[in-house]
Amino acid sequence: MKKYLEFYKQLPLNIKGLAFVLIIAAALAVPISNKFDTIGLVIILSFLVIISILMSWITLKSLKEVQNPELVDGTIGNVKDVESRMNKIISDEINKTGSVEILNYGLDMETVVQWIDYQLVNKPNIDSIIYKGLIVDIESTALRKLIDGDSNIKTHYAKHAILKMKELISKPECNKKDIDLKLRSYSAPPVMHGFMINKKHLFLGFTEIKNHKLYGGGFPYQYYKFQKSSDSNVHCFQVFNSWFDYTWKNAKEVI
Predict the structure, then answer these.
(1) With helix as H, strand as E and coil as C, how does 140-168 read?
(2) What is the chain's mean pLDDT, rounded?
(3) What is this structure's pTM?
């Protein structure tokens, strides 16, 4: 008997509910069969099974929402996947508000400037852009030993990104539209990085230190859509906002 109870405990919640109803139905089958014909008995048992399945589905759905109230789209693979996901969000935000504000706590911005060029500046339906970006300060003594070498954060990527951003600002498209692009460099080793769009969408990533080298951008990001009712969700937005503002105020102006 003990072995059967252990087996029952390991069953998924919806299977447990179904098994429980079937056990009750089997126990009631004999007395019920004395009062109803075969068709009536089948209808009653079927009704009990449907109720069990429905209750199990509702329970599982509720548990999932409680465990992850702020998780909308889950984990996103890397920065390239993030850029692809942001394209859809930005398009939706443009359709709703006509403008987009992006806060980017970046690393060496290896691919970000190209993404800004192709997906923001050159998009005909986007006329109003505010972009504030943070990039690693390659001259920082605190960062110099952590980047380059085995690190995937490179000095030449950062230099190239700054050069391309300056070229981007001088493009005719930027003069024709209401485009405000700003870039500053920070000197402290970053623990987090990511993007915030219109204060409603947050892509949050974290760095790692391995063998005295800094790594980031290639790890999964977490996506959050702002939910005022979720304390953990609000906290994530406040963490990003407060650290971005603090770093921005203390960073060196690049563009």
Answers:
(1) CHHHHCCCCCCCCCCHHHHHHHHHHHHHH
(2) 81
(3) 0.70
